[in-house]
Design goal:
547 residues; alpha+beta; Transferase(Phosphotransferase), domain 1; Nuclear Transport Factor 2, Chain: A; 2 domains; six-stranded antiparallel β-sheet; five-stranded antiparallel β-sheet; 18 strands; 32% helix; nucleotide-binding; ATP-binding; Ser/Thr_kinase_AS; kinase
Length: 547
């Protein structure tokens, strides 16, 4: 490449990497006597217009100052030496760390021992605690962003998401600025970060999966999930681990942030002591109780700022000890006694009333009423319970305009079984839509329209075979269950899922709508068929995020 001199000072030696935000170079500082080396990041805004440029420039300066503070107070974060703009591009000049990333270390040495991984975690968690104390969420912790420094063997945390988010700034038609991308790496991101709401525990999730990668050699996309809970299953890939260390990692990668460690300090103490705290049980409504705190108590939430300077509220709850029972007071005894007497009186009156009613002559049913049949039930499940005919009394005419009493539907289909089926369907796609095109597996999971779309004549599978094509899947994650309704032998399940799929034809990727990496809300229709639950149809309700 042609030698490049930036800012009339930094001589570029070689390109270290490139991506959607720009390029990273290894350079030499020609104005230093030692000619020391440094890393220069060239950053490019995603949108190129004057309004965006001015906004990005202001944020770039502010967040460069944040990076300077972080590196200046921790020797495990690269120092920021300078920042500047040249020819409309933004540049960061950072300390060059001589070492190897955790990815490179694994590729060179193979999977790491428990003691080695534990040492890395014990040395990186204080750095993460410091970053969080500055109200910053790193958001892109992964094996490529932790370097083991040659000089002392310490892990160095690099590549913060703050400046990346600035480069992803766009301006809407109304003139408001917004982020156009979600910072992070697929697989290493928890669901709340994918939705653009990272918290401190999001970094702990990513760090836990990084540790599991070092112990198993498997990236998150290669790890199965429990069909009943949606949690990542990994322990059988590392059978020699101590139970206490495995428990720490299990807690770090829980799908819900409230079930993970509350802080980097707590995770560090669990590693050092071998005691993993049990996640507190917080009622679902607690997070929304601001003016009226739950019975356990409420502490004013602390405002936290992610690396993109987006504030969020992280409420902290405590539990008050339950009061010791000292027996019932006199008034409580009186109330209970009165209630028992009242119930007996009501039962007696009810028995007398039934006897009187049974002695009265019953009205004769007309021929028209005898021959009429009830209205057919709606075969498709609905989000509300249907009306039971038994809720009408014999004294009421059929044309009674008063609203009927709703009763709960009974169904053999459970939410757990429905979730397990969809999870199995997602996991089976790699075998179904790529050679050897496992039709048997598809027929076990689908019926009706879903079978026709995927397996039957004129289906996706038939097209793939005829056109020498197949799908390859990356991330396949169920993020949340939005709604579940069961009615007899049918049910519907609304699920938010993230999927990375690529269509290949004649060995080459096809870049069209069939190749996509997105998060979407999908509605599945389910059917019990000969005692086995299957997918009868599905439709995308909406695309939430398209990467």
């Amino acid at each position: 490449m042609t030698p490049i001199l930036l800012k009339n000072r930094y001589q570029v030696i070689r390109v270290l990497g490139s991506g959607g935000f720009g390029e990273t170079f290894l350079a030499e500082d020609t104005q230093m006597p030692s000619g020391c080396r440094c890393v220069i990041k060239q950053l490019k805004p995603v949108a190129n217009n004057p309004q965006v440029y001015q906004l990005v420039q202001e944020r770039f300066q502010r967040e460069a100052a944040i990076l300077e503070e972080l590196g200046g107070n921790s020797n495990q974060i690269p120092r920021l030496n300078a920042y500047f703009t040249e020819d409309g591009q933004f540049y960061l000049v950072q300390e060059y760390i001589e070492g190897q990333t955790l990815t490179q270390k694994l590729q060179q040495q193979g999977i790491l021992s428990e003691s080695s991984v534990k040492e890395i975690l014990i040395n990186i968690l204080p750095v993460l605690e410091y970053v969080h104390s500055k109200r910053i969420v790193h958001r892109d912790i992964k094996p490529d962003n932790i370097i083991i420094r040659y000089t002392d063997g310490k892990p160095i945390l690099i590549d913060f998401g703050a400046v990346k988010e600035t480069m992803g700034t766009v301006v809407t038609a109304s003139g408001n600025s917004s982020r156009s991308i979600v910072i992070g790496t697929p697989g290493f991101m928890p669901s709340e970060q994918t939705a653009g709401r990272p918290v401190f525990a999001s970094d702990l999730y990513s760090l836990g999966l990084t540790a599991i990668y070092l112990l198993t050699g498997k990236i998150p996309q290669e790890l199965p999930t429990d069909p009943a809970t949606g949690e990542i299953v990994w322990r059988h890939f590392a059978l020699s681990l101590s139970p206490s260390f495995a428990a720490v990692l299990d807690k770090a990668i829980q799908s819900h942030g409230r079930d993970r460690f509350s802080s980097a300090r707590e995770m560090l103490e669990a590693l050092q002591t071998g005691v993993t705290p049990i996640a507190p049980t917080i009622p679902p409504f607690a997070a929304t109780q601001i003016s009226a705190p739950p019975s356990g108590g409420y502490v004013q939430p602390a405002t936290v700022v992610s690396s993109g300077a987006i504030p969020y509220q992280q409420p902290v709850y405590y539990q008050q000890p339950a009061p010791v029972s000292k027996g019932m007071s006199d008034w409580q005894k009186a109330v209970i006694t009165g209630g028992v007497i009242g119930a007996c009186v009501l039962i007696g009156l009810t028995v007398i009333n039934r006897k009187e009613t049974s002695n009265q002559p019953q009205p004769q049913q007309t021929v028209a009423e005898q021959n009429s049949s009830p209205a057919p039930e709606n075969s498709s499940p609905a989000p509300t319970s249907s009306v039971s005919e038994n809720s009408r009394t014999s004294q009421q005419p059929i044309s009674d305009p008063q609203p009927p009493i709703a009763t709960a539907q009974t169904s053999a289909i459970t939410k757990k079984a429905a979730f397990a089926l969809i999870n199995q369907w997602q996991q089976s796609k790699a075998q179904l839509f790529a050679p050897p095109f496992n039709r048997q597996l598809g027929s076990e999971l689908t019926t009706g329209e879903a079978y026709r779309k995927n397996i039957g004549q004129g289906s996706s599978l038939e097209w793939l075979e005829d056109n020498n094509a197949y799908y390859r899947y990356g991330v396949q994650r169920i993020d949340s269950i939005e709604n579940f309704v069961a009615n007899g032998d049918q049910a519907t399940l609304d699920i938010v899922l993230t999927e990375d799929r690529k269509l290949y034809k004649n060995g080459e990727i096809v870049n069209d709508e069939n190749s996509s990496f997105d998060t979407r809300l999908v509605r599945y229709s389910l059917q019990l068929e000969n005692g086995k639950l299957k997918i009868s149809d599905y439709t995308t309700v909406r695309v939430i995020n398209n990467r």
